Amino acid sequence: MYAQALSTYARFADYKALVCVFLFGGNDSWNMVVPRSDAEYQAYQLARQNLAVAQASLLPVTPLTPLANGAQLGLHPSMPEIAALFEQDGACAVVANVGPLITSTTLAQYQARSVPLPPQLFSHNDQQDQWHSLRGKAVSNTGWAGRIADALGAQTGPTLPLNVSLSGQTLYQAGASTRPYVIGPDGPVDFLGLDGTDALSVARKAGFESVLRASYGTIHERAFSGVQQRALQSAQTVNAALATVRAPNPAPFATIFPASPLGTQLKTVAEMIATRGALEASRQIFFVATGGFDSHDDQVQDQPGLLANVSACLNAFYRATVEMGVAQSVTAFTQSDFGRTLTSNGDGTDHAWGGVQLAVGGAVRGHDIYGSYPVLRLGATQAADGADEVGGGRFIPTTSSDQYAATLSRWFGVLDADLARVAPSIDNFPKRDLGFMG
Predict the structure, then answer these.
(1) Is residue 96 part of a domain?
(2) Other C-beta atoms within 10 Å of 163: how many?
(3) Which of 3-12, 73-82, 191-200 has the highest mean pLDDT?
(4) Got the DSSP string for 207-224?
(5) pLDDT in tens, 267-299
């Protein structure tokens, strides 16, 4: 993929951050963004059966761009913060029926297998990898955030890698020539036994550093030593920077984050953004995640809490960026394994394909919907806007994850010439930019 030289980038004079919020398990987004106009809601209710959200409880949202045939939408009642970000702040956009594709695909093409399709559709691990890597049918050990880092190179700040994960190692941030930095939900974890200020801890740390600086004869020993040195130095640097914005120091924002694992991760991301000057960062990509969205069972009981947590956490994060004066420079966006079936399995929904994602930030062209939301009609298996259903309530995406990624990448600073390196299938689609970023 990188046989040709990447474009030349000047050192960035501004700051931008992307924050990927991954919803592991496959979010049932047809209950997150719901048709609320009568005809469309009746079709939705017929398909969803016991899983349907009550029409009267939906939070009305009115996109600036009207849907086909005047259909209206609402958000799940557990997401009032997202509704306010969409309607009042104009800082939230909905990207509809998006998912992994290699090229635009119709129902007839899907049935005839006349166009290439992403392998292992409806499989958790495979479709997570498709979202992370945009690999199509090819084998790839890099992700699209990692390829952004490869493209931008050293123009993003010398102190830390561009990519930082607060939720473990991920293919999404793996690069060919760059590596991500992995920390815990609260920040870097110090080496056990080396983090004290007593004489024994100080001596132990000095001894460990001396071992790391020793000369080693094999490439494996030298590589291991290098990894340990970078980890030790990075933990010291980041923890020192975070200490300047954590108690007992004045916090950089008054926003209270939810006391959930996702809330903790996003609070740490906000604190790291607050220390961007000390870390000499001009571009950063963060990865955070939360799980529980594999809703084959107990969806009526579990989904309201899951969506409420996502809504409250994204709102808190956005409010913190507003307080810090960087809302225009920070964009959070969701991804998930896949959408889920429109039809109920009796107690939940099953693995599907296209789904709905959210983008939140000051630079987002919000209060609107991008892509084609399947406008349902009674007695029809296809949406009025052309989204095809392949059976079991599974919709073929009408917008590709490559387009989604390319739109975010272009805003982030990736040159048009490098978009095909970041999103390899982008030229198979009519639009490189979906338009939801300013």
Answers:
(1) yes
(2) 28
(3) 73-82
(4) HHHHHHHS--SSHHHHHH
(5) 999 999 999 999 999 999 999 999 999 999 999
* Dihedral sign, Cα of residue 161, residue 162, residue 164, residue 170: negative
Do β-strands 355-361 and 92-99 pair in parallel, antiparallel, or remain unpaired? antiparallel
Query: Does the pLDDT of residue 154 top 80, yes or no?
Result: no
Q: Is residue 178 part of a domain?
A: yes
Which residues, including other chains, have CB under 8 Å from residue 188's CB and lie 6 or more apart? 234, 235, 238, 239
Contact 400, 357 (CB under 8 A): no
Q: Which range (174-178, 224-228, 345-349) has the least confidence?
A: 224-228
The enclosing domain of 88 has a CATH number of 3.40.720
Query: How sure is the predictor about 2, in pLDDT bands with cuts at 50, 70 and 90?
Result: very low
Please give the Cα distance from 303 to 78 (Å, whole number).
Answer: 9
Identify whether the C-beta of residue 365 lies closer than 8 Å to the C-beta of residue 63. Answer: no
User: Is the pLDDT confidence value at 174 over 50?
Assistant: yes
Full DSSP string of 136-201: TTS--S--HHHHHHHHHGGGG-SSS-SEEESSS--GGG--SS---EE-BTTBPPPPTTSS--SHHH
Q: Is residue 97 part of a domain?
A: yes
Q: How many domains does the chain have?
A: 1
Q: Are strands 330-336 and 355-361 parallel, antiparallel or unpaired?
A: antiparallel
pLDDT in tens, 246-261: 988 888 899 999 999 9
* Residues ≥6 apart with Cβ < 8 Å to 245: 251, 252, 271, 274, 275
Give me 297's structure tokens: 């069972």
Report the C-alpha gap between 337 and 124 in whole angstroms: 6
Reply yes or no on whether the pLDDT at 70 is more than 90. Answer: no
Residue 211 lies in a domain: no
Q: Residue 417: which region, alpha, beta or left (left: phi > 0; alpha: psi -120 to 50)?
A: alpha
Decide: 343 and 387 in contact? Cβ < 8 Å: no
pTM score over 0.90: yes
Q: Which two tokens stand for residue 337?
A: 């394994």
Token pair recorded at residue 347: 């107690």
Whether residue 225 contacts residue 232, with contact meaning beta carbons closer than 8 Å, is answered with no
Q: Residue 303 is part of which domain span?
A: 16-186+261-428
State how far the Cα of 288 lies from the Cα of 19, in Å rounded to an integer.
Answer: 7
Which residues are registered as beta bridge partners of 187? Answer: 184
